[in-house]
Structure prediction request, 77 residues.
Amino acid sequence: MSDTPSTAGYENALRELERRVIALTALCEQQHKENLALKRQLQTLQHERSGLIEKHELAKHRVEAMIGRLKNLEEMP
Prediction:
């Protein structure tokens, strides 16, 4: 009979450990999904940034070309 309380204690401890492992596993799965979503978002933002940098460079060259043409017009008699 002395084994019954300690066995019950071990079973309770084992159930608690199992509950905590299940909770940790669920948390890990949630974090993994969130991580994948953040990686996709980062990739999208990096692609968008690249496009914006390209547009900025194009606009910069156009403005520089316009300034050059205006200076040529000023120099003409």
Summary: The mean pLDDT is 93.
